[in-house]
Structure formats: structure tokens, C-alpha cells
Amino acid sequence: MNEPVKLPLSLDGAKGQAAAPARAEIDLNSPEFYLNRELTWLEFNRRVLHEAQDARTPLLERVKFLAIVSSNLDEFFMKRIGGLKQQIGAGVKTLTVDGRSARQQLTETYATVRALVEEMNVLALELHKLLKEHEIYVRSYKRLNPAQQAELRDYYIRNIFPLVTPQAMDPAHPFPFISNLSLNLLVCVRYPNDEQNSLARVKVPIGMGIPRFLMLAEGTFFVPLEDVMANNLDLLFPGMEIVSCELFRVTRNAVVERAEEQAEDLLVLIESELRDRKFAPIVRLEVVANMDPVHRGMLAAELGLDEANDVFEVGGMMAMRDLFQVAGLDRPELHDVPHAPLDHPKLAGALNVFHAIRDAGTILLQHPYESFATSVERFVREASRDPKVLAIKMTLYRTSADSKIIEYLLDAARNGKQVAVVVELKARFDEAANIRWASRLEVAGIHVNYGVVGLKTHSKVVFVVRRDYSGLRRYAHIGTGNYHPGTARLYTDLGILTCDDVIGEDLTEFFNYLTTGFTPKRNYRKLLPAPKLLKSSLLEKIEREIKLHAGKGGGLIQFKMNALEDADITAALYRASQAGVRVDLIVRDTCRLRPGLPGLSDNVRVVSIVGRFLEHARIFYFRNGGHEEYFIGSADAMKRNLESRVEVVTPVEHAEARAELRAILDTQLNDQRSAWEMQADGSYVQRQPKAGAEARGSHELLVEAAERRLREANRLKKRRPKGIARRPGH
């Protein structure tokens, strides 16, 4: 039997706190019972990095996970470090619920990031050797033979060199603007027989079709573009002596927000914020490990950084996020077994999606195991073309450049249907794309709204009004994930297709709220929208579970989500545990709660699933004295989601759908391959399968379950006698 893998602890504030005081003395406001959001998120990335370190993971998947961690750290600096620096600059003294100041968080996160980067560099060398064993080479320009060098030089001259612009740095040429996440060469040159050195910055023009790695015509050789450029500087500086060439990279703050309440035009405001972000303060400078100290100091000074803290030396490859290019190689034997999403059993073969929903009542969708294209996209496509459909309303948070849903909405408008779309312009890093979508939809005559002032619209809802044989009927899709076909193949998400009358009435109220912002008394009978009802409802249901458990025992709460950050929800779950209620939490990344503290959380277990797909679904379950309740929706248990975003959580009442949700929870809680159990000190231990036990992770098991559902449905269809055909239009 393999020994469980335990990750090193980086949550300094939690060390030595494995035991809680006796229950009577416990103060649930005490900072020691709450883990730090930033540090727990970094711990999640340590778990992702372990997937890259794990020999059980196929080689190119290991490379992919390494690239994911690098990309995540870039985003962490842009969003989280940028935010901490703003707090420090503004003199914010308020401590977090875990008792840390912004300065303390910055210091601790920097230490954790440096340790992570060290691990990444060590792993990159290991993967480099393993790739060579499979004749995949990430190679420096100097290690190529003369013919190979000539091939790349010629390619560079013809395809890239015209785009390269050297920028001198001297009294006549001020320090140039350095764009976010760009790779740059700092080149020191001088004329022959001249002792005077000059500096120039050369941006590596990655993007717009130019890859980070250039490939040779023969063999699988990946050569970094910056290395090709650095070894062909004679093209940029003919006749000059190259004294040195050093690589650096900057990360800018992405937290640039203006007062929305005072804006006359939200579209103009967001466009202005995007311009501000381009020139936002720099929060990190990465330099090669052997950079000249004078050059390093000059860069830090020019960029306004604290050289001792904000400059990160990189001993290995810079910007490992670009390894996605290597990970994308078409070498099936080095990847996970291919997975093709299946048609949902209740939709496969159905002639009309609305008839299928009406016959089933509610259909639970599980992505990526079941196809997004033949369920959600099909729902919108048929709505756009069905002559009985009168109106389509939806929320749009993120989608892709090749989104078919946008085209279907445009088709619907052309077909004379009433179409209203609530576009969230403030979806981080998708603002520009959403502005383009909004403009395109408006030109087509679609009613475009930007949601409620001061709140992000994060809900995932499509609402369709159709004239059925019995009168108007409301159909809906409510999900946990974005309407993005790309992420639907990579993220685990849930959704329901339903024609439940009460949910339809609730959605009518919900969209009236979104398109007006007016908040009169809206009587939601089934849906739990945020910020109006969701948080208070979750707290009430936790307290109800405590009371029911006190009466007859058997209390059980199970949440599956991306993050548990809200202090009120955390404290309520502590109270439930103290009362004897069992609490099972499947939390992907940030989790403030510390499980297993005697007298406080000894009835709580926290599991994190890290595997082939990115966990993104949200499920809320309450045993409720035997009258079980299941909910799914767009919200995590985070303060921002519960109080500052428009979210929708819906009950799942259909017996078959509830059984599927139960299977998901049980499968993941019992996962022995991809599950990590949180310890009382905030560290995580990866479960290992025992001898003879199931060695596959929950993602593989849920793929198999989807295949089994479809096979069983097809078997029953073959056995079912043919009845009288339904008349068209019913």
C-alpha cells in the first residue's frame, strides 16, 4: 500500500493549533479558527502542482498541470497581490477574519510563492529529461547543430523579425512602457573599440499567431523564441558588440475599478478601466537568476518596485504557462485516455427538446461527462427556431469567441422573438470580449442590459417562454458553469433543464429585477437568489439542521463548491459540528474552516478533488430530518458571491436527478485517487488506494457512470414497445 502524500504546511498562522479549547470556552470569532484566503488558495496550487509531480499522471498531462500552476500564479499576482498592495497603499488597517493585516498576508504569500516556484523549477528539469526519453526536446538555440540554427534563423527573419522593435534607454529615450506579462530582453551593447555601454529593451512578440516555442521541420524540437532572438541580435544591432542579454518579465495589477454608482455610461466606464489596467502599477518583476545587479536595481527603480521583495529571480524557464504549447502535442500515449462527452439519455433521439423536458419534468446535466452542445446549446438553438417560442432571456457572464449561443440569440431576434440578454461587463479578464458581444447583440435589436448597479451578475440562466398546447409555459436552464463551450469540456459543472411552473414564475421575477434594478417585494418560492435570499437561507437551513438533529439525530450537511470563504457560513458550520451534525465539505480551493478540532469541528471533514477536470460545480445538501433537500447553482460560499453578486441557486426536486447528485457526492467523498483530506492545521494529505480497492479517481468513475446511464437508456428504448406517435407541435 502506498503511503499518503502530505503537502508541507504553509499556513503559518495555524501551526501548533491542532487542538481547540473545551467547547464552553470556544469563541467562534477567534482568528485561530479561520484559515487565510490567500494562503489556502496557494495551497490549492500546491495540490495542482502535485498532479504534475505524480508519476501516475501521463507525461504531457504533467506538463499541462505545470503550465496551469504558472498561469494561476500570474493571475494571483494580478488580482490578489495587486489588491493587497492597494490596501497597503491606502493605509487599510482592518484585519482579516484570520487576524492578518494586508502587510502580513503579502509577506507570507511571497514566501509561499517563492517555495512553489522552487518546486516548479525542480520539476521542470525532471519533466525535461522525461520528455527527451520520448524524443520531445525543449532545447536552447546554442545546443542545435548549425543546420538547425540556420533553419530557425531563416524562419525568424521571414516571419518574426519585422515585428521586433528595439527601444534604447538613455537620456534621449525615456524608459519604455512594459506591457503586462510580456517577455523582454534587456540588451547591453556598445560600439567596437568603445567602452561606453548602452541599454535597449526588446519585447519578445508572442501572441497574434506567434508562439513561444519555434519548432524545427524535422523532429519534435521546441526552441524558445526569446532564445532565438537573443542569439541573433546582430540583426537588430548590426556592427555592434553584444555585452549581455538578460530576460525579464513584469506583472501588472488587474484590480482597477471605478465607482460604478457615479458612472453615466457603464460601457464607457468599463472601457476606461481596461485602458487603466494596461497602464496599471507593476506588482512583480521576474528576472533571470544571473542578472547583473546594476541592471536588476535599475529595472526595479524604473518600475517603482521594492527590489528586496517584489523582484523574483527565476532559475529555470520564465513564464511556464507557455508550456501549454508543448502539452498540446498530438501524442495520445502521453495523454489521458480521450474523453468525448455523451448525449444525455433523455435528449438523445428526442425530436424536440421542449417535449423531452416536458416529459421528464427536470433533466440534470453533468458536464463534461454529458455534452454541452447537444443539451444547453441545443436548448438555445431550438428556442431560436421554434415558431412556438415567443421570448428568450439569459444571463451572459463568460463565453468564447466561437460561441454558437451568440449566433442562436441573433437568429432568434431575426426570427421575430423577444430576446433580452443581461451581459456582465465586469467579468474579470473577459471585459473586452463582453463589450464586443453586447455591441453585436444590440445592433441586432436584442435588448441588452448590464445588470444591477453595484453587483456583478454571476448567475447562469436561460429562460424561454413558449406557447404550448395548453397555453404559455416557461422553460429554463439553470447551471453552475458559464455558457462557454470550451470550459464545458474541461470543467465539471451541473445544470438542470426544467419546465417547473414555480421556478418559471420565480425566473420571471428574477429577470424583471435584473432588467430594472428595482427591488420591491419579490416573492421567490423556490429559487434562492443572491444577494437577496441565498445567504440568509443557507444560515437558516444550517440552524434548522442543528435543531432537527437535537430532536432525533442523523443531522447531515454536505456542500460541494469551489471555495468556503464567508466567515458567517464557516461559523454556522462550526456550530452544526458542535451540535453533533455531520458536515461533509468538498471544497476545491480556498477553505477557511479547520476540520477535526476537538469540541469544535470534530464532525467535519473537508475534501479537495484535484484531477483531470477542474472542479466547478456547486451542490448544497441538507438531510432535513429525512425530507432531503438538494440545491445547485452559481454561488460559492464566499462573501462576494453571497453579498455582492447576483447569483441563482435552485432546488433539485426530481427523484432521478437527486439520485444522480447523491451519486456525485458519494463518489467524490469516497475518492481514493484524486481526493486530498484537509488536516486540522490546514495542510492536506492525499488519499492513496488500499490494496485491491478502486484505484481510479472520481472523474474517471463519473465518466463511466455517464456511459452506463446512456447504455441503460438505449437498452430500455429497444425493449419499449412502439406506441402511438405524438402529433407534431404538441
From TrEMBL:
Gene3D superfamilies: Endonuclease Chain A (3.30.870.10), Polyphosphate kinase middle domain (3.30.1840.10), Polyphosphate kinase N-terminal domain (1.20.58.310). GO terms for cellular component: polyphosphate kinase complex. The active site is at H458. InterPro entries: PP_kinase, PP_kinase_C_1, PP_kinase_middle, PP_kinase_middle_dom_sf, PPK_C_dom2, PPK_N_dom, PPK_N_dom_sf. Mg(2+) binds at R398, R428. PANTHER family: POLYPHOSPHATE KINASE. This is Polyphosphate kinase.
